Amino acid sequence: MQHRLLIGSACLLALLSTIGASLAYPLLPPLFADAQPSALNGFLGLPPKLLFGMALMANPIGMLLGSAVLGSLSDALGRRRILLLTTIGAACGHLLTAYALLTQSYPLLVAARFVTGVLEGNGAILRALLAERLEGPLRNHALSWLNGAFHLGWLAGPLLSGLSAAFSITLPFYIAAGGLLLGAVLSLLVLQAESAPGIQGGWWSLARERHAFTLLRHSPLKTLFLIHLAYTCGVAGFYEFFPLWLVEVGGYDAAGIAFVNMAMCGVMTLTALIAGRAHARDPRARVSSQAAAVALAILCVGIGNLWVGMAAIILFGLPHAFYNATLQAWAADRFAQHGQGAVMGLLSTTFCVAHIIMAFGGGLLAMFDTRLVLIVGGLLAAWAALSMRRWSRTPTPTQQEFA
Q: How many Cα atoms sit within 13 Å of 205 on the Cβ side?
């Protein structure tokens, strides 16, 4: 029963957090690419697509900082404490986003997305919580179910924004804030209080000395970072720009984008229920095959017509869910001695770095053709698949290599 409550609480927080994070993705493209001139899409006279890319980039920049330090901070100060603080803070961030949209303030919108992103970096804490307190097949299943909760949030968030934005563009953010506050209260009741490790130092010194990037001093973790970065750059470019592709190629509005996203995330959520099963094959070889399938899906969007691209968007969710489940379970087993919060923080941070790179670089490429972003993303994911395949053929490192 204790394990069920732990898994259920973690999945609930993951769901509510991701609903809030994903709300803006169907809302922003029509505001910048298919709308009358406004204070948002005409800020300082800059091109709307460039403003769109900068608005996208603010949230992952915040998540980069949050993911880099929050997991390691929870290693030092306790999971429950940091989870509750970040959840309540993210709720406040959504309220600030709603106010920015009401006042048509582009600088405030970017700032609100940034602050919320910092606090949404707590996904690493949830993964570390399960990796630390569970063992064996149950841990693998729980991590996969947690991924399913994140995927379900990417389904529910855009669907919520697509449907409720017809009443008010700010209503989705009010709902997300209320959900996070409710989740914080429930987690306060369910998650057991813990004694923090006896690690000396204040918040700032701990964040500076124990952030996720300190793990890159270890060669295997550096290799993992580089490969995972290439893969996540492909995925980030896909996530960020397939809605814009739907607007340009299919003339979709926020509701249409939400329904396509719902189908894709539905596939990911259902796949995550079974993706944590044990397998005799080397995890790195499986990750390579899964990354190759993701690369193919992204390339099909970039070079295909509307119907081929839509099918690829939806089917993308299947190999991506397997990739996440396989890689996270393997990393939790292999690198546990570095602290689960730091290891899961590194994986989350990598995805944030990728979002920043692709939001900026993709914004520039999209000024020429949005399909270029998707093609480049597919090629990066393909390179990651080939690199992981080569790595899987090397002898299994000894434990001393990871110390």
A: 4
